[in-house]
Structures are given as structure tokens and as C-alpha cells.
Amino acid sequence: MAAGSETEYKLDLDDIIAFPDAAHVPVLPPEPGESWIIFGEIVNDASVFRPVYTVRDKINCEYPVAFYTDNPNEDAKAAGCQLGRVLCITNGMRHHFVDGSNGYRIEDPSTVFALPCSMAELRALNKRLRDQSDAGELQLCSKCKKQSTQRCGKCQTAYCSKECQSADWKPGAHRFECRAIERLRIWNRTDWG
């Protein structure tokens, strides 16, 4: 998948190379310059001795994600793991657990993070950004649709003024979407190799 830009959004969350589902996970580690993201919604917290979550991916396959880091509880908390959030694993490789299940064993906390949204919300945000791009509206104010040169400092959403940005933040819409939009825009500009 070719990378997008600030003015062209073309991210496809169904691309099985950049975002493999359970049926398309690579069996070999990434080559230099190659990467992918495994993602799914946390649907169950099965933690007992260490953080273990059941995650449902985009084709409705469920699998465990277990933290085997030096500080598993702190690392899971720092990653933002909570029910209903989308858990993302960079360059995830399948792991066969002793109980016979297949999932992901997290040993490096820098490879995992959670987005504060559900899978449906992530897909809706992605569609909205693609629709805005297709309509040539990525450079227009998110609140009033006027031409804009200002951006949210975190996610780069366009605003024509601080007043429009504040108005969009206060009701909560942008406040809750900002981190997910930031990640989608980073992924949009990524050359997945």
C-alpha cells in the first residue's frame, strides 16, 4: 500500500499486508523496512497472574494477548488496555500458548498500545477521513468547513481558528477522537514495505 500524505488520505484498514487479520498473519519476522500492525478490540479481560486479554479482530476471530514483560501490569496499564478499546501490536507474530491457544505474547512493551475507541469507531473515523480526502476537504476546518492553515497539534485535524478548535473540543467529539485520528494519520503516511 502506497503511503498517503497530509492532503491525501488513502489508508485501507482491510489491507492484509499492512493490517493482517488472524488468517493472514506473517509467519516470518519482518524484513528491513517492512512492518505491519495487528489490531483488534479487547472483548474480555482474562487476567489472573498477568494481564491477558481476549481480542476480536476485523474478521471476528478471537485470540489471547498476554503480557510477559518485566513489569506486565504497569506495561498493560501504560499501553491503555481496557475493554472496548482497540489493541494494536506492531509486527506481531503468533504465539502458541501451553493451553493450546494461539495468540500474541507481548515481551516488548514498546510494540503494543491501545486506541481509546472501539473497532466500529476506528472504522468510522477511517471512513470519515477517506471521504474528506476524496471530497478535497482535508484542508477545511473540521468545525465550520472554511479554508484552514491551522492544525490540532496532536492529530493534525484542520481548524480555521482557536475558537473553532475549542468549540469542537468542548462537546467531546474531537477530545475522544484525537488520539485515534493521530494514529490513523501516522499509518496513512507510512510506507508499509
TrEMBL record:
Keywords: Metal-binding, Zinc, Zinc-finger. Residues 141-178 form the MYND-type domain. GO terms for molecular function: zinc ion binding. Pfam families: zf-MYND. The keyword Lyase does not apply. InterPro entries: Znf_MYND. SUPFAM superfamilies: HIT/MYND zinc finger-like (SSF144232). This is MYND-type domain-containing protein. It comes from Roridomyces roridus.
